[in-house]
Amino acid sequence: MKQKLTTLLFALLAVCLGMQAQTGEKGMAFEPEGTLFKDAVAKAKQMNKLVFLDCYTSWCGPCKMMSNTVFPQEKVGAYMNPRFVNIKIDMEKGEGVELAKRLQISAYPTFIIFNGDGNEIGRFLGGCQADEFIKKVEQASTDNASAEMDKRFADGERDPEFLKQYLKTLSSAYKRGQCNDVVEILLDGKAETFAADKELSDMFIRHIIDPFCPAFIYTAKHPEALIAQVGETPVRMKLHSVWSNYPRQLVTEDAAGNVTLDKENMDRWLALMEECGVDDREELRLDALLGYAEKKADWTAYAGYLDELAKAVDLTDLELCRRCTPVAKECKDETIRKETATLLQQRLDDLNSGKRQPQTRQGNMVLSGNMGKAMEMLITNLTTGEIPGTDKK
After folding, report:
1. What's the sign of the alpha-carbon dihedral 375, 13, 207, 52?
2. Is the terminal CB of the chain with fewer CB neighbours within 10 Å at N or C?
């Protein structure tokens, strides 16, 4: 049974999927798919070259643009190939999962230059045209300011002005974990007073990602001071973002594909949310467990958590479709597929009978797709393995 879901359904939900195209013969020469990062580094050291790492994902539009239109160009290959060992790694598969965490990759595409010892020299982000790409590679290959600042920080320099300059460097490279660490130092001892300082409050909003940061815990319990400084919406959004994104750090996958959950820190996170009176902590708990079950491909557990979530929370139409899509794409258990189809059919019946009104917004976003149609496509796939309107080849 061939899956027909990916192209049509994900287009309807405005999710961009696709495979990276191969570069042309005269363009950039990349190491074979599956080459490990350490092997690329060893090759670069032997050849007295640098390493160019393309950190991409399969769903990233700019990543595909670079692969399809920039990397194959002859002038790009002529510049890159003599100087670099070029390697692409999907940050959501295999070795890429661990690399993404270690290198603090949070936006795609991210391009990183390493020396022959595997030490980062520079990085830049985002798609661009060929001439700009070459210019950015050249700049990232020769600017060692960030490496020098890394060393100064590692050696214990904590002068506030240095930390602020270091923060700008880290921020431009999207090193979110290190940004958090620097801001925590700047906020040390100021949890109850930082809100009155515009510079510090801006740093908090932009860079704090650790819910166990003392300034974050105080703000979660006493948000009024920061709200008075920056407004209620940014503060509420910041609190929710930190609470909801933390579980991503708790699920790890090794190169062999083994997925583990940091249960100890999961329990700490849940206890802290209870202590801080987070209203939607049950939804966040189930969201984290769903992500873990999906990563492990434990569809029995996934279906159980989805059922709990549907009973505990009035899921929007878009959210319900999003939660059911992994089952349609990956699960082979017919019982679970049918249970998921039933969940969707109940929602579709409510929409068709007028018991529920069609969803037209998700937060501040206006939805352009037909969610009822998306549900019909999912239901058909879950029950038959096909999508209406597609051939069976």
Report:
1. positive
2. C
